[in-house]
Amino acid sequence: MVVTVAVLPWPPAFVPELMGRAASEVEPLRHAADSALRGLVAELRRHADGQVVVVAPGEPGEHEAAGEVSFSGFGRDVRVPALPGAVGAVDPELPTSMMVARYLTHRVSADEPDMAKLWAGARWLTVDADGAAQLATELAGTDEPTAVVLLVDGAASHGPKAPRAEDSRAGAFDDAVAEALVRGDRDALAAVDLDLAGQVGADGAYLWPVMAGATAGGVWLGDVLFRGEPYGVGWTVALWRRG
After folding, report:
1. Are 203 and 233 in contact (CB under 8 A)?
2. In which domain of life is the source organism classified (predicted)?
3. Which helix or strand (DSSP H or E) is residue 98 part of?
4. Cα 30 to Cα 17: distance, rounded to the nearest angstrom
5. pLDDT tens, position by position, 101-134
6. Rg (CA), the chain
7. Three-state DSSP state, 142
8. In this model, does residue 88 exceed pLDDT 70?
9. Which of 40, 192, 195, 213 is the most exposed place for a label (fewest CB within 10 A)?
10. Which helix H or strand E contains 225, and what residues bound it?
11. Alpha-carbon span 131 to 32, nearest angstrom
12. How many helices (H) does the chain have, and how many strands (E)?
């Protein structure tokens, strides 16, 4: 049973060393991500032993993400140490989303061995739109208390500096998702307009129905810790707990 969900974006901008003098601009986002992950672990621990599953959009696969991670492909050889018990060299094929997630989990577990061990046992999954419904069913049906970290960006068309062409509908799209997260509204997440999502550049929006399906049953309490689009992409950080 899924007992808690943290929603995070996955820009490499999270890593201060990659941002240079602009690193401080993303500090509120980093702080929100730290809070969401700490809250996720605290909620999971209320249910005794459990597992963490990290989910991001991409080619379907399960990744060995516990080893050392290098951001050298982004111009600086920033390295994230391996998690306890991990073996092997840096995986050059590790998706960017998984790299960013490993960086964020290191931030909150570097000085806490018990938390680091929890992340070392996590599953790190990427899923495409075709496999989304099956993953939701799998997560909803697990017997083990499960915490899900959902890595998903919003619209990429906020303003003239956005990666995609500016689209006036981007703000309303991301606001609607954020409102659903605040309300703990599974029905609203399940009904996200995926056609509109594609038009405004929210390419991973098919994960919102995954979240809705995985959290079937009960009442959910939502908290949005960050909502903004500093570089033209909608970024939302949120935490869900079972009520």
Report:
1. no
2. Bacteria
3. helix 96-109
4. 13
5. 999 999 999 888 888 889 999 999 999 999 999 9
6. 17
7. coil
8. no
9. 195
10. strand 220-228
11. 29
12. 9, 9
